């Protein structure tokens, strides 16, 4: 598994505002979108392309275009939905599938409550959007789901991650083609399963739930 932690002052600046408890939901949503677009640039570094010949007004030349089958973007509901616009801005030709995972707040175990994905993901590159990699439960379950359908490789984009979550995913996906692209790697998880210092509940902050 490859792990890429963003190292860019613009990303750190936006993350700092995102973490601030005084940041309102509209600003939080806007910043999440911007951050995902920046992270998507790194996450799509290995997107499959094929050569094409085109004519410029001057001559013909060889360029590339994104290969078929189209990449699949999978936001994990609910908070991953706040990352979708930022992702498709950079990858407008991607297909979008949905996976609803909820965390049982007592056991911290993930359950699937919604799924809208192609049956066959053979040869598909998948980009999973999940803002908070905490225990790794829901992201791990989502990856398992996609690999069972034949996904060729999976890149997950997370705004923040805890070392515990990264370790859990690494153990689970051993031997598979997985990349994590993280806005930041935080210190730890607390006893309630929140990332520290983190930003609180990403879904609540995106959608203004009290
Ligand atoms: N999910 C969140 O939204 N925040 C955390 O800190 C952990 C999981």
TrEMBL record:
GO terms for cellular component: cytoplasm. It catalyses: UMP + diphosphate = 5-phospho-alpha-D-ribose 1-diphosphate + uracil. Residues 5-209 form the Phosphoribosyltransferase domain. Pathway: Pyrimidine metabolism; UMP biosynthesis via salvage pathway; UMP from uracil: step 1/1. Coiled coil: none annotated. InterPro entries: PRTase-like, PRTase_dom, Upp_B, UPRT, UPRTase/APRTase. Its cofactor is Mg(2+). It is an enzyme of class 2 (transferase). It holds the Pfam family UPRTase. Keywords: Allosteric enzyme, Glycosyltransferase, GTP-binding, Magnesium, Nucleotide-binding, Transferase. It comes from the Bacteria. 5-phospho-alpha-D-ribose 1-diphosphate binds at residues 78, 103, 130-138, 201. One of its GO terms (molecular function) is GTP binding. Binds 1 Mg(2+) ion per subunit. The magnesium is bound as Mg-PRPP. Belongs to the UPRTase family. This is Uracil phosphoribosyltransferase. It comes from Microbacterium rhizomatis. The gene is upp.
């Amino acid at each position: 598994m490859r792990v890429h932690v963003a190292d860019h002052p613009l990303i750190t600046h936006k993350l700092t505002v995102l973490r601030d408890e005084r940041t309102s939901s509209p600003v939080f949503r806007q910043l999440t979108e911007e951050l995902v677009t920046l992270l998507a640039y790194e996450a799509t570094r290995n997107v499959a392309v094929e050569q094409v010949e085109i004519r410029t007004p001057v001559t013909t030349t060889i360029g590339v275009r994104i290969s078929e089958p189209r990449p699949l973007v999978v936001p994990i509901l609910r908070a991953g939905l706040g990352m979708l616009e930022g992702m498709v801005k950079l990858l407008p030709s991607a297909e979008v599938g949905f996976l609803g995972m909820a965390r049982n707040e007592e056991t911290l175990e993930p359950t699937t409550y919604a799924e809208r994905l192609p049956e066959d993901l053979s040869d598909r590159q998948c980009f999973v959007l999940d803002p908070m990699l905490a225990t790794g439960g829901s992201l791990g379950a989502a990856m398992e789901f996609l690999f069972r359908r034949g996904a060729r490789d999976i890149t997950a984009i997370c705004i923040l991650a805890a070392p515990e979550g990264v370790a859990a995913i690494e153990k689970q996906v051993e031997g598979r083609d997985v990349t994590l692209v993280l806005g930041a790697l935080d210190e730890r998880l607390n006893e309630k399963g929140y990332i520290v210092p983190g930003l609180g509940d990403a879904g609540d902050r995106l959608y203004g739930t009290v």
